[in-house]
């Protein structure tokens, strides 16, 4: 996907991102004056956006989409407004540290998503005020383009042949990496017929896609250890790029047990909320590809810290990114500024008006 020059064109009622010249200097005394949240109906999960306003007429946007609990997340973001209003939006790391410190629990999906959204909005404001893309504030550009893989391309398919037919549409759009869940309604244990059907689905997709397309097999954390191991061993003949979240995410030892017994790469991390869980997975040698979600883990800076942890182990990062268009922009700026970022997740099946929100 192409990288945009700014995080988002955040406000068409005032100066848009593209209108800020590169020579704009920081305005002294810039202050946050208001915070608003927006919940938008969408295809997979409703999008939760935040917008920060400043006394200089520069606004910034961020996203806190979560799978459910949208009003809870929106209310939690508004609570942060009591701290943020009147503050300098340039002091991003300081504000995030204070907001994290002042939350007794410090982790969990609600807090981490609220921090992610307001942090991104502050980065958006700072980039516009300085006339630079957000990736410049994250260390500078490592690449101009990033390979995207398709998720959601199989919507409506249930049989192996239907998955195979859907494959053709994704390839026609130019995707050369496809992620899908072939396991139906299975949970923990799979009956022999369920397992044969899942493996047959992967086989038919591989036959339809050919050998030059990467297949990413998603399990959504639904299998127990012996089932995940047996399935992973059966998948090996189809050379998947990775086997994602084969067991429930709560147990790192369970994930490590699967990884040690299957001959394919393991990906995980979409349901981890901070760098400490990723550090635990790396120390346990439980994962090959890390998948932090820029909305789940507390923001762009925390995602960069997780990427740096992965680099210490020579592990690649492919961020979890099936959310809305603002989260996509946030993730792309991390991808631009991170040496070990490999694949960008994108939702192929989505609302038809997504392109009206962001190109």
Q: How is this structure best summarized?
A:
The chain is α/β, with parallel strands linked by helices. 39% of the residues lie in helices and 14% in strands. Helix 1 packs across helix 3.
Number of strands: 10
Overall form: globular
- Rg from Cα: 21 Å
The N- and C-terminal alpha carbons lie at a distance of 11 Å
Could you walk me through the main structural features you see in this protein, from its secondary elements to its overall organization?
The protein has 359 residues and is an alpha/beta fold. It folds into two domains: 17-133, Enolase-like, N-terminal domain (Enolase-like, domain 1, 2-Layer Sandwich), CATH 3.30.390; 147-357, TIM Barrel, CATH 3.20.20.120. 39% of the residues lie in helices and 14% in strands. It has twelve helices and ten strands. A five-stranded parallel beta sheet has the order 5-6-7-8-9. Helix 2 (92-101) packs antiparallel against helix 3 and helix 9 (275-283) packs parallel to helix 10 (300-312). The radius of gyration is 21 Å and the shape is globular. Mean pLDDT is 90; it is low at 1-6 and 8-25.
Keywords:
359 residues; alpha/beta; Enolase-like, domain 1; TIM Barrel; 5-stranded parallel sheet; 3-stranded antiparallel sheet; 12 helices; 10 strands; 39% helix; 14% strand; globular
Summarize the topology:
Elements lengths: L31 E9 L6 E8 L4 E5 L6 H15 L7 H10 L7 H22 L3 H4 L9 E5 L8 H13 L4 E4 L11 H18 L4 E5 L6 H11 L6 E3 L7 H8 L6 E3 L6 H9 L5 E2 L9 H13 L12 H12 L6 E5 L6 H4 L2
Parallel strand pairs: 4-10, 5-6, 6-7, 7-8, 8-9
Antiparallel strand pairs: 1-2, 2-3
Helix pairs in contact: 1-3, 2-3, 5-6, 7-8, 9-10
């Amino acid at each position: 996907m192409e990288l945009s020059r700014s995080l988002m064109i955040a406000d068409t009622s005032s100066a848009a991102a593209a209108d800020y010249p590169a020579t704009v200097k920081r305005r002294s005394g810039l202050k946050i004056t208001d915070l608003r949240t927006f919940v938008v109906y969408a295809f997979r999960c409703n999008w939760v956006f935040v917008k920060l306003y400043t006394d200089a007429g520069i606004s910034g946007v961020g996203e806190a989409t979560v799978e459910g609990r949208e009003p809870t997340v929106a209310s939690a973001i508004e609570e942060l407004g009591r701290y943020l209003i009147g503050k300098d939006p340039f002091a991003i790391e300081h504000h995030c540290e204070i907001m994290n410190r002042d939350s007794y629990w410090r982790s969990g999906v609600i807090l981490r998503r609220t921090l992610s959204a307001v942090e991104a909005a502050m980065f958006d404001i700072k980039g516009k005020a300085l006339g630079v893309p957000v990736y410049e504030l994250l260390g500078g550009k490592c690449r101009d383009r990033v390979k995207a893989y398709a998720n959601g391309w199989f919507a409506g398919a249930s049989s192996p042949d239907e998955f195979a037919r859907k494959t053709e549409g994704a390839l026609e759009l130019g995707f050369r990496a496809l992620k899908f869940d072939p396991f139906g309604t299975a949970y923990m244990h799979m009956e022999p017929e369920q397992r044969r059907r899942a493996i047959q689905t992967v086989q038919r997709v591989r036959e339809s896609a050919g050998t030059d397309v990467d297949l990413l097999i998603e399990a959504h954390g639904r299998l127990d250890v012996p089932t995940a191991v047996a399935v992973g061993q059966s998948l090996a003949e189809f050379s998947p790029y990775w086997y994602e979240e084969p067991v429930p995410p709560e147990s790192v030892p369970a994930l490590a047990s699967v990884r040690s017994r299957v001959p394919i790469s393991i990906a995980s991390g979409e349901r981890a909320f901070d760098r400490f869980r990723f550090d635990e997975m790396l120390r346990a040698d439980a994962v090959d590809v890390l998948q932090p979600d820029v909305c789940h883990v507390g923001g762009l800076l925390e995602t960069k810290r997780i990427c740096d942890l992965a680099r210490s182990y020579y592990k690649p990062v492919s961020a979890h990114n099936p959310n809305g268009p603002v989260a996509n922009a946030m993730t792309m700026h991390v991808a631009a500024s991170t040496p070990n970022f490999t694949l960008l997740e994108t939702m192929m099946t989505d609302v038809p008006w997504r392109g009206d929100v962001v190109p």
